[in-house]
Amino acid sequence: MNKAEVLGRWTKEKSEELYGIKNWGNSYFSISDKGEVLVNPYKDNASSAISLMDIISGIRDRGLDMPVLLRFENILDSQISFLNNSFNEAMKKLNYKGVYRGVYPIKVNQQQQVIEEVTKFGQRYHHGLEVGSKAEMIAALSLMKDKEACLICNGYKDEEFIDLGLYAVKMGFNCFFVIEIPYELDLVMERSKALGIKPNIGIRIKLSSRVGGHWTESSGDRSIFGLNVSQLITIVDKLKEINMLDCLKLLHYHLGSQIPNIRDIRSAVLEATRIYSELVKEGAPMGYLDLGGGLAVDYDGSNTNFVNSRNYSIEEYCTDIVEAVMSILDTQDVPHPVIVTESGRATVAYYSVLLFNVLDVQRFEEYELPEKLDENTSEQIKNLFDVYKNISLKNIQECYNDALYYRDEIRDLFKHGRLSLRERSLSENIFWNTINQIAKEKQKIKHAPPDLEDIESAIADIYYSNFSVFQSIPDSWAIDQLFPIMPVHRLLDLPKRNAIIADITCDCDGKIDRFIDLHDVRNTLPLHEMKNGDTYYLGVFLVGAYQETLGDLHNLFGDTNVVSVRINHDGTHDLVKEIHGDSVADVLSYVEFDPKDMLVNLRQTAEEAIHEGLISAKERQEIMKAFDNGLRGYTYYED
């Protein structure tokens, strides 16, 4: 008997196909011969790959509990390098006379460590930052050192924001004020005159081009940010009037965060470049064309224009942009500008992986039913039992409809007191056995009836897991974003259970019941059966963009533990930074509780309980100790 037969003929290749890791993993993630997920930032060096299970072991040995967010700093470095090199190679191949300058939008992931590493790894490419608020501006100025990198100031700007940007210009930074609404120009010019510092002006334009996907409202004539063409001309005339047109150096637009179709990207670039060339003809020096964000991440690995995917590679993205710009400007004899993109999602998405353990499983099991029912059994229950007994391949749709009808009739009888609780229980067991049998028969049909397409989800197991959807992957709940999710070990074993994932927030929305699939969206995820005493680990991948920033305190579950990992070329790794997740006291303070006052209040309550004879003084000490330990503890389930 060979190894495949011993393992039930399940192989790592089958796991790769089932979970699609080769499609969405971007060569960073793979499966080892031991059946564990590997991570490797060096695509040309297979020997440097590290097992996530080895990292988990090191984390647990250091006393950190699940859930944990892993940040792989080498992957961030790799993504920044790949984007810059792809643009540089496209420009060289097409003989483009300008250069590329990427900027990272701080809003995509505002954690200090992330921004610090972006500026460090991006410095050799003069990769800058984009800010949209005063707080982000202050963060950027505290970390930026590269005077050749761009500092793009978007968003609404008050005097303090503008003054900070002008001081940045004074210190030699390549800082641009992007005018979002007409009145901002007056304020910029007023502060410029007061401080005696000449500003670099950019204009955000509303394009007529629209895109598909989650962020379609960011584009088109009715997008909420930016100037229309008439307002643009007014700005140009005003700058001419005050003899400040030489300050206008940048044109900017933004279509959205995840643009799946390359045709939409190219169409927008063509329109924006035409506007750019006209501004040059108006006498503005220009020099910078900022195409905003939109470089998509292929979350499901389908390489299509599906909302969670993209139908282009990064190389194609860069080449199409450079070609489109050149096709307009070369005919107008306009010099090639510095091309700027604000690619945040594609920069940091692969950088982070959320790991968590499964706490318990609610399995769907077939119930043991009697061979025949008692003569006194309700007629409706007998009818439901007959449906169960007579299921065949030919009549599964009819049996499904009948089962639903009789189930509802029986529940109605129970509500009106005409059935006992035990009879109701028997009917439910018959019903779910019927659904389970129909689901089995459905697998034999090539084209199942529409009503039965999602029947597996009705009998899926529930894997209760140690994390919060709302804190760690809020886009999964808020906008139905799909993320790759899979076990990080046991991948040489056949996953025999179909499951959905529930978090520990006690909220009916705290679940994941939509999963990536190469051709569609799955309603269940194949998982392994839980082994007694063994911990089962799952990973959510590509969560580096937006999720940490958008996470909330639903049920007062706070930030998870964070571990930054550096993978070395020789196959070793270092845990370079540990950030402990929020304690209970931390999250209570976020919602205006004072932990010290809480201790005082409980101490008084416990003292009153002593006087009432409910507890002893020693028991009060134990209660206070438990309360204090609880305040200091992790907000998630602790071993």
Q: Compute the gyration radius: what is it?
A: 30 Å
- The percentage of residues in β strands lies in 15-25%
Span between termini: 40 Å
Number of strands: 25
Q: Regions with pLDDT < 50 over 5+ consecutive residues?
A: 1-7
Mean pLDDT over the full residue set: 93
Helix content: 40-55%
What overall form do the CA principal axes indicate? globular
Structural class by secondary-structure content: alpha/beta
> Helical segment tally?
23
* Sheet having the most strands: 10 strands, mixed
Describe this structure in words.
This protein has 639 residues and is α/β, with parallel strands linked by helices. It is 41% helix and 17% strand. It contains 23 helices and 25 strands. Strands 4, 15, 16, 17, 18, 19, 22, 23, 24 and 25 form a ten-stranded mixed sheet that branches. Strands 5-6-7-8-9-10-12-14 form an eight-stranded parallel β-barrel, surrounded by seven helices. The protein has a three-stranded antiparallel sheet with strand order 1-2-3. Helix 8 links the parallel strand 7 and strand 8 (174-179). Helix 5 runs parallel beside helix 6 and helix 11 (262-281) packs parallel to helix 12 (314-332). The protein is globular.
Question: What's the helix and strand layout?
Answer:
Blueprint: H1 3-6, H2 12-19, H3 21-24, E1 29-31, E2 37-39, E3 50-51, H4 52-61, E4 68-72, H5 73-94, E5 100-105, H6 112-122, E6 128-131, H7 134-143, E7 150-153, H8 159-170, E8 174-179, H9 183-195, E9 201-204, H10 229-241, E10 248-252, E11 258-259, H11 262-281, E12 288-290, E13 294-295, H12 314-332, E14 338-341, H13 345-348, E15 352-362, H14 379-389, H15 396-415, H16 421-442, H17 455-458, E16 461-465, H18 469-472, H19 474-478, E17 485-487, E18 497-502, E19 511-512, E20 515-516, E21 521-522, E22 525-527, E23 537-541, H20 547-550, E24 561-567, E25 573-579, H21 584-590, H22 595-611, H23 617-632
Parallel strand pairs: 4-24, 5-6, 5-14, 6-7, 7-8, 8-9, 9-10, 10-12, 11-13, 12-14, 16-18
Antiparallel strand pairs: 1-2, 2-3, 4-15, 15-16, 15-23, 17-23, 18-19, 18-22, 20-21, 24-25
